[in-house]
Fold this sequence. Notes:
This protein has 415 residues and is an alpha+beta fold. Helix content is 45%, strand content 19%. The strands form four sheets. It has a five-stranded antiparallel sheet with strand order 6-5-7-8-9.
Amino acid sequence: MSYLLGVALFALAILISVSLHEAGHMLTAKAFGMKVTRFFVGFGPTLWSFKRGETEYGVKGIPLGGFCKIVGMTPQDDDVEPGDEKRAMWRYPVWKRTIVMSAGSITHFALALVTLWILAVSAGLPNPEFPSTEDGFKAEPAVIALAPCVVVENAGRACQAGDPASPAAKAQLQDGDRITAVNGRPVSTWGDMLDVVRATKPGAATVDYVRDGRPATATVDLAAVQRPPLGDPKGATSAVSALGVALQPSTPTRVQYGPVAAFGATADFTGNMAVQTLHAMQRIPQKVPALWSAVTGGERDVDTPISVVGASRLGGEAVENNAWLVFFMLFVSLNFFIGVFNLLPLLPVDGGHIAIIWFERARSWLYARLGRADPGRVDYLKLMPLTYAVILIGGVFTLLTITADVVNPITLFPR
Length: 415
């Protein structure tokens, strides 16, 4: 039930975000005097609506987003009633139309920033000093956290009934112990310890450690397991030894900030997220074959894109495991991604309209400098083939992503 509740909560959060996106368009358009005739949450048949002033507000039967209707978005629109010609959106100055069209993305960014600030003050944000690479983890001191078991094969899955107990736990080692030697071979880092343990034969081995500043020695019965090479998780497995421990990082994973310092931390985190989002968007074409492989029975790459279905499933997992920080960070990431995606200079998204607005302005400026007549507005009808192509490609990609999220979803927690 907690999983289904989480899925429903995250889906609701997405619906609210998209509705606020449309509200951003509507409110800025109204503020500039443009005519907005409709604002609805959802699509399909109307369930409930009312009219206030010149705008009809309501809820439709398919809760997959929302829309608002601004009169005269393009010169080719035929929805301008007599007397409203001056209120047609396309007649307004460039800067006003740019604000209206970017208001949706600005709303998503605002939701992400406010949520990040609240998290920074209440729960903390990911620590920028925490190791982010495998080499960074290997350089950490060999301070251990006991594992509940040893997974002999398929490392990475959760413990199951019948898995052998952790050798370190059976030898009375404790969380926070710092390993200093294995069978007399000194180790100073986590990477050293992994190398030495794997190179030691399974069975009895002496482990030197430090606990509360005092050195001690334990005899540990190292387990025989199958593991891929270090640094190559998809490589061929071989028989090695395991101590049954995980790394206990010396650096905290999160840092909590005061109300003022949280603004700077939020800005830094947002900058990093912007870079990561752009890199992720650049990799999308490369990930299409991986998505197809996941749909046709291959292993799902955790770095492949997810749809709102996949995001909602991850939200459900987060609630099921009481990982609310993960839930809200997913909400932040999704809003930031949607905000950036909507600014892409492609029709029919908002960025496409903004690009045309500024293309018209630049072209008019150039023609004026050349002493030629203003060529006027762009004919959107001539751009329809390109728009349909973008819609078709986007629709196929969305369908592929949703299918992968249904038949072979990404998971954050072992189930």
